[in-house]
Amino acid sequence: MKRWNALFVAALVAAVILSFFGYKRASGRIFETGTKALTEVLTELRSSLEKDLFIALSQINSLVLETPEGTQTELRYWMQHLLDKLGAADVYCVLPNGESVYTYELPFALPPIDERSEDWYQRAKEMKPGSIVIFSWKDVRGRYVVDLAFRVRDLVFRVSEYPLKSFSEKLANDKIRLTLAALSSKENVKSAVVLASNVYKSGAGIEISQMTPVNLEDVGFLEGKPAIVGELEPSWIAQKRQGIRTFWTNLGLGIVIGILVLWIFIFFRRYRLILRSPLSLTIAQQALSSTVAIFTALIMLSLLVFMLGRSPFEAIKEMIAWAFFTRAGIIETLTRSVPVTLIATGLCVTFEAGMWNIGGEGQFILGAIATTGFSVLLLKDWPSLAVLIVTLIVAALAGALWALGPALMKVKLGVNEILSTLMLNYVALKLLDYLVYGPWKSAKVKNFPLTDPVPVTLGKIKALNVHWGVLSIPIVVLIVWFLMRKAVFGFEWKATGLGFEAARQSGVPVQKSQVLALSLSGAVAGLAGAIHMFGAQYVLQHGFSPGYGYTAIIVAFISNLNPIAVLFAGPLITGLFVGNARLELTMGFPVSVSFLVQGIILVSVILIRNLFLHRPKFVKRGGT
Amino acid sequence: METVDAILQATVRAGTPLLYAALGELVTEKSGVLNLGVEGFMLMGAVTGFVTVNIAGLPLLGVVVAALVGFIMGVLYALLTVEFALNQVVTGLAFVLGGSGLSGFLGKAYIGKTISQVPSWTVPVLGNIPILKGFFSQDWLVYLSYLVFFTVWYFVKRTRIGVELSAVGENPRSADSAGINVYRYRFIATAVGGSLMALGGAHISLAYAPMWIENMTAGRGWIALVIVIFAFWDPTRVLLGAYLFGGVSALQYRVQTLNIEISPYILGMFPYLVTIGVMLFFSSEKAKKMLGAPRSLGKPYLREGEK
Amino acid sequence: MKRAGLLVAVLLMIRVIFALKVGFVYVGPVGDAGWTYAHDRGRQYLEKVLPTVETAYFESVSEGVEAAVKLRQLAASGFELIYATSYGYMDSVIEVAKEFPNTVFMHCSGFKRAENVGTYFGRIYQADFLVGIVAGAMTESNLIGYVAPHPIPEVVRGINAFTLGARLVNPKARVKVVWVNAWFDPATEKEAALSLIEAGCDVIAHGQDSPAANQAAQEKGVWSIGYNTDMSKFAPHSHLTAAIWNWGPLYVEITKSFIDGTWKSEDLWPGFEKGVVDIAPLHPVVPKSVVKLVETYKYLFQKGEYKVFKGPLYDNKGNLRVKEGEVMSDHEIWDMYWFVRGVEGTLPKSGE
């Protein structure tokens, strides 16, 4: 085993070094060649463009002498001839009286248009015979085309979508994608330039055939001489650079992961993990485990931030400073922690009674639905205090009812409550959608899927700018704590949770206590829904809860099912998530990184807690 | 007849990702491990499969990589929940978060890219018979799902391994005392299940809608969980359930084109309500003995002697 | 006095040295290939054109309290101009704007304004009308399928304009609508599109964020029309054109007016004339005469000389909604919640 270990470590280090230096060298080299290639590419592009335009010019000029003077039919015939030669999409002619002549008969009645006031017409009109105006460009799926106009006597012709063949080819051959901002020339074709800008920064990694055209006025092109706008950074350089980077890093990472997996595999073949029976941790141990857990989570976060190329210290500083030490951050943390903490408090009860209520989300939404249903639609004319009190009770009842179903199914029929509560979440979400898109849609919001706002609001605590519903947290926590620790229910729940059979044999009404526990947590979640509606949300809308019920599960679990601990863990965990989201703004991380971090925080927290609880140790296989 | 064929074809197509994921969950749950992280597994399968095909151009390689990634995630999940006995509900939720986050992050550079789709193939004779046509003019991943189904069915129903797997899920203590290695069974079942879930995701990104968009599985992982319950942990019923759910989503639009006025939101509730109904219906003691949910589902196993 | 002058000078200097921070709040992930993606392209364009502007964004922000929280965070972190890009953010924007009177909020597709809250949107229905023309000209079965996300006025308006366009060139054309009830679910969208194709539709249009419906059309060999962005890459053989958003120029204009100090709270609802909406390049199979027609109408939209919703307009139950010679006001167009003649589909009833 010793020898193996040494070998593994050596391979690991080698892989890391390989990926690091490989990346360094490769990126440097590509960058140099890339910059050099850039100017060459640009020159070649320009000459191929000029070639294309010269072809167009000579084709037109070769035919100009034959321009008919007679009827529209003759004109049409001539234009068709030109069209064939140019290979463009369309040619049409604007007569001096403003009428247009097309190359074909139109089956539809076109609305009359007069293009004589248009810029392109004016410019073409002023043009010397034998030259052309290029006034717009298009990118048709990687094939670049321009619109041209020219003048023969008093007839002005417009050629649509003349294909820039060699230019497009050049681009395709070099695998370049760029945005043609404009091709323009006020004088003649020779001075046409490529105005190019890569709208996308390297690394955005998004390619589409039509990019946003740059408005010429915005870049100040029209005022002065033609110039190259913006930096031309063909994405192939970025791509190559990125390709090499991913290749080396992927190789290195692949080797690292492979070795680690092999290592773990061999380790587990030789050793066995033994979990010792859970101790009941003292308060101090619990606090210690939570602290270690949070620190581990932060270390994992730092590793991730480091891998993304940012400073971990700054990230953590930013997170904590924002979530707990700025006014706006504290508002954010507190506002979000109201529903989370309340639901978590309720969940403690169910978890203590040995049941898993995943349905906090659904019960929360149902509470909110009941709130709108009662306060907006039924109790409209009641005095506000009465509305408030009645609605809070009704919402709690609604939440309790939503949980009662799974509870009864569990105790009467043995249906797994994890799954039934989970499914009811989805039913609640669909019900919400049904109501806001259909019957409950407000008449005042121009058919948007929103309900009317609740008639009563909780108002805000002036100093904090957080609604008064915050105060419900300690109240609910105290009540739940009292029920769990001081009332007779609490002992029944605890007994049921510790051992269903044993509890039943010793005379605890296990079924009753389980139903009560699940309903109570539902009621608290429903109440949270009502408080959330009255305090901050006001109207029902699609997806108004970003998963508070699921975050609550995490909070309840981390606080070891102790409501008093929830009081602290709720804001703390919400704060961590809030701070984490802060990094999206300050460090430009995508939201997916936030999700990833939440997952990592979660796993490390419960892992650490379990390590404290079970004190695992490895023993050699076969020996015991 | 053609409409029926078309509906059947749509049903199978829409049901396949669900079938993979639900079979994966079934294998996992049979061993007594509850994996709520299906959505995360599917997304990771979808993104890694897509990225592989985009780089290498080989659909087959994409499928293999997706399965492998699912396997690795499964191993990780098993390590946490089986070896370290972490709470399975919370770990599952963490895997949903982590899977959707990591997949979104890995896929950032591949949004808007295209790939060569997993090819379709019509089985020569079977593909021309009405009714059967729906099942045998599909893409290769669908045929693979038939194979996977029969394998799972065979192992669960017809072999010693299946019996021992159920025993591990039912009562790990007595299984252990009968000399079955509970940990090994749970470990392997979770890993294999993980790779099947990832295949379900890969079917969406490689064959069904060949592209990568963040969160493209759109909650199918949760439906897969529902199907397993609906099927009461029986592979054949999982097959039926997956196609039933696929059929509902396929039929929904055909009903809409008939101008029947039911709110689609209400229609959307049906799968869940039906499943709850099925759970109620099949949960009498007698039925339970016959069908049986793994009794120690979601409970980590700690050996007596190791206390 | 001197001091005050100095202070002003310092403040001005700070304004010059420190870039203007512009924040964006998106409802979906930037990688949704649709709505949010189009907005993010606008943001990137803004950064490109106005280099002194610094931008940042929050993605996947759900509507409701979450949005208020994120808006507040942006405002508190020194972002002076904030774009909120989903209608569901409406109340949150108003609420937060009250707390930060010195920050300017621009809310996309809403209608509530305040002293420091303006609204903006694009007349995408003009582009819908144009792609409708293409669809109407290309259909042979006279049946066009439309995969629709959610029954809200914005979507209904688009379907109506699309239908009017199709029936302009093909009075027999009918548009079949199915609701997916999601902005974003590729597999389901594809299934919905396939069901429409089976029902006999030979052109598929959609209002979704993903190109799944286009892919379905390509597989079945029928034409399709994209939405939000050019989706031709996903279905090169089937994609006729797409109604697309081009937010960049509008963002530049608004931001410039903010920098110049000429910004005021108003409702901006530009269309082709500002280039906010456009159509993707047409597929080569589209006949030249149709191209010409589309170009002509595009030209008229640019000049502001054509109105899509003008009488006589009948709803799909046969009632006359707009009389001959009348033009629907912006206000009426804004909360349009009925289908024009030629649409086959139902809208969920509102409980009013």
Poorly predicted sequence stretches spanning 5 or more consecutive residues of chain A: 30-35, 177-244
Q: Could you tell me how far the N terminus lies from the C terminus of chain C, measured between alpha carbons in angstroms?
A: 60 Å
State the CATH class of the largest domain in chain C. Answer: Alpha Beta
Give the SSE string of chain A.
HHEEHEEEHEEHEHHHHHHEEHHHHHHHE
How many H/I helical runs of chain A?
Answer: 18
CATH architectural grouping of the largest domain in chain C: 3-Layer(aba) Sandwich
Topology:
The complex is a heterotrimer of chains A (624), B (307) and C (352).
Chain A: H1 2-64, H2 72-86, E1 90-94, E2 100-102, H3 119-126, E3 133-140, E4 143-152, E5 155-163, H4 165-173, E6 179-182, E7 195-197, H5 235-270, E8 271-274, H6 283-307, H7 312-325, H8 327-352, H9 360-378, H10 384-413, H11 417-437, E9 460-461, E10 466-467, H12 472-485, H13 488-498, H14 500-505, H15 510-537, H16 548-558, H17 563-586, H18 591-614, E11 617-620
Antiparallel strand pairs in A: 1-2, 1-5, 3-4, 4-5, 6-7, 8-11, 9-10
Helix pairs in contact in A: 1-4, 1-5, 6-7, 6-18, 7-8, 7-17, 8-12, 8-13, 8-15, 8-16, 8-17, 9-10, 9-11, 9-15, 9-16, 10-11, 10-15, 12-13, 12-17, 13-15, 16-17, 17-18
Chain B: H1 2-30, H2 38-56, H3 59-83, H4 88-107, E1 120-122, H5 133-136, E2 137-139, H6 140-158, H7 160-170, H8 172-177, H9 182-208, H10 220-230, H11 235-257, H12 264-281, H13 285-291
Antiparallel strand pairs in B: 1-2
Helix pairs in contact in B: 1-6, 1-9, 1-10, 1-11, 2-3, 2-4, 2-9, 2-10, 3-9, 6-7, 7-9, 10-11, 10-12
Chain C: H1 2-17, E1 20-25, H2 35-49, E2 53-58, H3 65-76, E3 81-84, H4 90-99, E4 104-108, E5 117-120, H5 124-138, E6 143-148, H6 153-169, E7 174-179, H7 186-198, E8 203-206, H8 212-220, E9 223-228, E10 239-245, H9 248-260, E11 267-268, E12 277-279, H10 288-303, E13 313-314, E14 320-322, H11 330-334, E15 343-344
Parallel strand pairs in C: 1-2, 1-3, 3-4, 4-5, 5-11, 6-7, 6-8, 7-15, 8-9, 9-10
Antiparallel strand pairs in C: 10-12, 13-14
